[in-house]
Design a protein that fits this description.
- The longest helix is centred in the N-terminal third of the chain and has 18 residues, at 4-21.
- The chain starts with a helix and ends with a helix.
- The chain contains two helices and no strands.
- By secondary structure, the protein is mainly alpha-helical.
- Helix content is 85%, strand content 0%.
Length: 41
Protein backbone atom coordinates (compact mmCIF):
# COMPACT_ATOMS: atom_id res chain seq x y z
CA UNK A 1 0.00 0.00 0.00
CA UNK A 2 1.18 3.52 -0.73
CA UNK A 3 2.21 5.79 2.08
CA UNK A 4 0.31 9.06 2.51
CA UNK A 5 3.39 10.90 1.23
CA UNK A 6 3.45 8.80 -1.96
CA UNK A 7 -0.29 9.24 -2.44
CA UNK A 8 0.01 13.03 -2.06
CA UNK A 9 2.86 13.09 -4.57
CA UNK A 10 0.85 11.06 -7.10
CA UNK A 11 -2.32 13.16 -6.67
CA UNK A 12 -0.33 16.37 -7.11
CA UNK A 13 1.31 15.01 -10.26
CA UNK A 14 -2.10 14.08 -11.71
CA UNK A 15 -3.62 17.47 -10.82
CA UNK A 16 -0.74 19.36 -12.44
CA UNK A 17 -1.04 17.21 -15.56
CA UNK A 18 -4.75 18.10 -15.81
CA UNK A 19 -3.92 21.79 -15.37
CA UNK A 20 -1.16 21.67 -17.97
CA UNK A 21 -3.50 20.00 -20.47
CA UNK A 22 -5.76 23.06 -20.47
CA UNK A 23 -5.32 25.80 -23.04
CA UNK A 24 -2.90 28.38 -21.64
CA UNK A 25 -4.86 31.38 -22.96
CA UNK A 26 -8.06 30.05 -21.41
CA UNK A 27 -6.30 29.54 -18.06
CA UNK A 28 -5.09 33.15 -18.04
CA UNK A 29 -8.53 34.51 -18.95
CA UNK A 30 -10.23 32.49 -16.20
CA UNK A 31 -7.60 33.54 -13.64
CA UNK A 32 -8.15 37.20 -14.48
CA UNK A 33 -11.92 36.76 -14.29
CA UNK A 34 -11.65 35.11 -10.86
CA UNK A 35 -9.36 37.89 -9.62
CA UNK A 36 -11.84 40.52 -10.80
CA UNK A 37 -14.71 38.70 -9.09
CA UNK A 38 -12.74 38.44 -5.83
CA UNK A 39 -11.88 42.14 -6.02
CA UNK A 40 -15.57 43.06 -6.25
CA UNK A 41 -16.47 41.25 -3.02
Amino acid sequence: MNSPKDLKKQLRKEALARRDALDEFWRVEIALEMAETAKEK
